[in-house]
Amino acid sequence: MQPDCSQGFVLDGYPRTLRQAEALEVFAPVDVALYLWAPKNVVIERICGRRVCPRCGAIYHVKWKPPRREGVCDICGAHLIRRIDDRPEVVEKRFKDHLISIKPILQFYGKLKKLLRVDAVEDAKIMIPKVIKLLEEMLVEPLACSD
Ligand SMILES: [Zn+2]
What we know:
Helix content is 39%, strand content 11%. The protein has helices at 18-27, 40-48, 88-111, 124-138; strands spanning 33-37, 50-52, 59-61, 115-119.
């Protein structure tokens, strides 16, 4: 184990299958499985508003982090694009597929009493302290944040 993981670690977006969850539980049992949930319309708004710079990789959002000039990267001046994966019809399908694939994983962690489902509709500024507080309530030791 790396020294930066000695106090614990977060796996973001993993496990993605029941089989992975079961395997993880054998070699590195999780303390909490955090499930950040938002309704479809919120997810679609968040993802479909995302714009990326094909040149420097900067990420924007039309509502929450717009570039100074519409459609133009603040950093390098390139024309911003919406990735194919971020188009509404693709996001809608991904959302549906996600609900199907996540269900057995949620049931797995639910049975182990390790599932923490949080409604993540609010802004990150509100959500982050809320999630830290909830995690601290589930964990014995307070969390040490790196930033
Ligand atoms: Zn750029």
